[in-house]
Amino acid sequence: MTGLAAKRRIIEGLCRGLQAAEPRARVHCKIRKQYRNMAYWLRDDMRPVELAREAIAAAGLKPFDHVIRGGTDGSRLTEMGLPTPNLFCGEHNAHGPLEWVAVQDMEMAVATCVKLAGLWERKGRGGGKSEIRISEIRKKAGA
């Protein structure tokens, strides 16, 4: 038993154990799907990540892989068939009341995106599972 199914069973078991230990309490265990880690889909075709690394380097930055876990738009878009790895952000006081990003970071992000668009134009066609089919993505999204 591995992955999310195993974690689900553990949580459900803990809830049952807590309910048995304290019969006066009401324990409800509700687990719902929110988003998956984009790595599940990107493993099949790493071109988006490889091209992102190349674009970051072409913009004059040193690519740095940092695994994050969060409910990003990129996770949902990747699950729907549009591989969308996170590029970077300023990450200054992330998710706190004093979160900020420097103008220079934003400029580098724009330069990276421009480089990435050019790389996809030259290198991204064919040969992989990450071909963008907007009609399929809209269908999955219910649009």
Coarse structural class: mainly alpha
Helical segment tally? Answer: 6
- Major sheet size, sense and barrel closure: none
- How would the global form be characterised? elongated
C-alpha-based Rg, rounded? 20 Å
Counting DSSP E segments of at least 2 residues, the number of strands comes to 0
Helix content: 40-55%
Q: What is the terminal-to-terminal distance? A: 36 Å
Order of helices and strands: HHHHHH
Strand content: under 5%
Q: In total, how many domains does the architecture comprise?
A: 2
Q: Low-confidence segments, ≥5 residues, pLDDT <50? A: none
Mean pLDDT: 82
In short, what is this structure?
This protein has 143 residues and is an all-alpha fold. The protein has six helices and no strands.
Task: Name its key features.
mainly alpha, 143 residues, elongated, 6 helices
